[in-house]
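Q: I'm writing up a methods section and want to include an example of the input and output format. Could you take the sequence below and give the corresponding predicted structure tokens, formatted cleanly so I can copy it straight into the document?
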Amino acid sequence: MLEVKPILAQQSMVISTRYPVMVIGGAEDKVNGCEILTAFFESAGGQQATIGIVPCASQEPSVVGDRYYKIFQGMGAEQVQVLDIRQPRECDEERWLNILERCTGIFITGGDQQRLCDLIGGSKFIASIKQRIALGDIVMAGTSAGAAIVGEKMIAGGSSGESPNQLLVDLTEGLGIFPDLLVDQHFHNRNRMARLMSAIAAHPDKLGIGIDEDTCAAFDGDGTFEVIGKGTITIIDPRALTHTNYLDVVKTSPLSLHNLTVHVLSRGDRYDYQQRTVLPS
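A: Here is the clean output for your methods example:
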């Protein structure tokens, strides 16, 4: 499990808040208070920040990149760069690695998480991000598709509005920033509880985290996260699971899952994802 050195002030860039990784459920506020984007901006160094935007999950990376460029430039970041990566492993080119090296914050936008993994998965680029997160000298935020990729296993797609079943969710490999987590986004907004339960039935060694829109799991770097934003984060913990019929039924059959632990967390709630415990606010 990835951990960040707790004393961030010892790094070359002083990071002003305790959120080295921010996992956002998508559709975060971009025009009003911009609570989540502001927290990322401040975490990356505020007006001294150099922010890199990775829009390659989107089918319209120029449009998406430009929108976030204007947001962070408007907040007063010292420098904002759009890393407009278009081809697999293009991110390993020196031009992009050199930009990444100077960034104090990296923001991964929404779109198609499978496309995102195909473009940057297994690269020097993502390895550098992981290393720098562990050292505490960069902040990474991912929204929507950029949130889905953080686990070792990733929900690449699926359906909603049904009972949990094996066909409800498409699973593949993620980027493993938090290997033990399995993240779903736009969670209650798109009725994805059964989808996440189906994913956890397939991988009961993982911790399911469903994040609503305009809501963020803001990781502190010490094995905990805090909820910020207007929605909720749903935890599906199978640690005490006593029975599932996942291996015994056909793919279209409803799944049994006995003794799942479910938490619903809202703004200000804190959770220890290593100990799997809700903490005092």
